[in-house]
Design a protein that fits this description.
The protein is an alpha/beta fold. It is built from 14 helices and five strands.
């Protein structure tokens, strides 16, 4: 219950920050209770961030050492039985930068302490199990960072837009996701869910850039154009998922993603704030340090 209470305290801290005007980025980007309107969020905005790209890139680079130090402390704490870990969930439309963000985050961290999974269409084996089965298998272990490029939310996004399951099944899945994420929080997982919010126009430009560059053709699919015809349906599917599955245990954050430099800055800042709030500590030595020093000097 300690982790669950910690999540509630963090949520209350963010709410108080909004009231006083001393908001953390978590408070600025967090999805509030109630109906979500993505159309009211400017994908090219930079809430809480630097005003210029050069400043944003420089500020992001300065996060590298503090994040690496926090990651090391988290991993070190796990060697003494601390079960806490971090799961970053990245969702967004095609070209919103899920893969690029995952790559960027890994650049901050020691990759040996990271568990990265990009979720594609489920395999026949995965379809033979409950939809959370493949996600559970990919969760980070104590002390680790987990990064999901897409996630269990595909089963309420694509499934809704493509009408792959009845609406009653969708409602059951939202509830199951909430219970699942609540159980993760109770087991020591800090879940950071980021929706990378890109505009329709920016997506067109990024898809055209892929077509113009032969080295990027492998990242393009004609189906990407078909999905653009379903843009309003996907936006509504995301709004419903954010409405139904935002909780104190696992809040959602909407990250404007038209400006790649801001997207990277915001994810780095969100992770830093969560880790600072966790405050992992190096464990105390379980041996006599002075005795070991004397023995070593005698060799």
């Amino acid at each position: 219950m300690a982790k669950k209470d910690g999540a509630k305290r963090a949520a209350e801290k963010d709410r108080q920050g909004k009231k006083t005007g001393k908001s953390s980025l978590r408070a600025l980007l967090r999805v509030p209770p109630g109906r979500v309107d993505l159309g009211a969020v400017d994908p090219s905005s930079t809430p809480g961030g630097p005003s210029r790209k050069a400043d944003g890139v420089a500020d992001t680079a300065r996060m590298a050492d503090p994040l690496a130090s926090l990651q090391e402390r988290l991993y070190a704490a796990s060697t003494a039985g601390d079960r806490r870990r971090v799961l970053l969930v990245l969702q967004g439309m095609d070209t919103s930068g899920k893969g690029g963000t995952a790559k960027h985050v890994i650049g901050f961290l020691n990759p040996s302490g990271c568990r990265v999974r990009a979720f594609k269409a489920p395999t026949p084996e995965e379809r033979s199990h409950p939809f959370l089965w493949r996600v559970t298998k990919a969760l980070p272990r104590p002390g680790e960072f987990g990064i999901f490029d897409r996630s269990h939310y595909e089963d309420v996004l694509v499934a809704r837009v493509r009408a792959l399951v009845p609406r009653s099944e969708l409602n059951r899945r939202y509830d199951e996701i909430n219970r699942f994420e609540e159980s993760l929080a109770e087991d020591g997982v800090t879940v950071v869910k980021a929706f990378l919010h890109i505009s329709y126009e920016e997506q067109r430009e990024r898809l055209l850039a892929r077509l113009d560059n032969p080295s990027k053709h492998w990242k393009f699919s004609p189906g990407d154009i078909d999905d653009r015809a379903l843009w309003p349906a996907y936006q509504r599917a995301y709004e419903v998922a954010l409405e139904r599955c935002a909780s104190d245990a696992a809040p959602w954050y909407v990250v404007p993603a038209d400006r790649k430099w801001y997207r990277n800055w915001a994810i780095g800042r969100l992770l830093t704030e969560h880790l600072e709030d966790m405050d992992p500590r190096y464990p105390s030595a379980d041996f006599d340090v002075d005795e070991c020093r004397a023995r070593l000097l005698a060799t």
